[in-house]
Amino acid sequence: MNRSSAVPRGLLKFYQYLGTFFSALILAVTIVLISKYASSMNPLLYGGIIGIEVYMLWKSIYSAVVIIKYMNNATDEEIIANRFIMAVLSMGVGGFITPFVLTQLPKIETNSTINPRVFLAKHLGWTMFIGSILALGATFLFALTSPMKGLFVIDTTTMIVIGIYVVIFLIGLLGISFFSSKTASEKISQKNFLGFTMQVIGVIYTLIATIEMILIAVMGVIRLIAVISDAIRYAANSEGIWMVFAIFIAFARITFEMMYVSMIFQISGSIIKGIWAKDQVITIKNFQNIDEKEAELNTKR
């Protein structure tokens, strides 16, 4: 591999570890913050918010493994060409530095060596398959142990939540079943019913990736609201000289969180634009397999 790489591989891999750490930290902070309001919250809502964060932590761990492995084997051209696809997988509530760096890589004239539909369907499939189980478990664990657990009942709302997790589980299973094989890139390009079906599923996963980016942005806003509420309450309960420090700390926390949410919105927008763009590095209709593209790149060196 070229040691004078134009792609900051070491930093990108470090940011993946850092993003996973922050995802775990944010989960812990979320549990602490939301626990302060648990006595006045619907237990299902309480557990549901934590369940989503657990899902994001699992996504961060899984994406770190996939991306670090890819960084160790891919060329500069491949990493640059596939930057938006990698960014989708690496984007999370705590992992925004890696997507930011990836989306800022130079826009050179090269085609994606990874079929975006195959890649997203396979890896988001595993994310959804395992993540739905973990999120469902976390949702009901915290709902059944919340201060308002006495209000928890198996009603229509609860069944809807269970149904959503089941749908996520089944969609994940669908992606794994169709796209986990090494010949998936070849099968999706075939002009038959299987190829058409796989392309449709691939589009669905691209839509899911888009929705996930929006969800991450929404979770950022929810966390911002929680930080603002907690900061105001902390400042209001302080007295004397400590009030000055409390106001300063509250202002700093709110400012930092607003900067964080602003960056999340910017990166999410770039990723969504990138994975749907037809005239940039991701060409959705290009279904050449990876080996052929790698051979082409090797002959040009």
TrEMBL record:
Protein name: Uncharacterized protein
Keywords: Membrane, Transmembrane, Transmembrane helix
Record-annotated membrane-spanning stretches: 14-34, 46-68, 80-102, 123-144, 156-179, 200-228, 240-256
Highest taxon listed in the record's lineage: Bacteria
Organism: Mesoplasma corruscae
Keyword Transmembrane helix: yes
Keyword Membrane (UniProt): yes
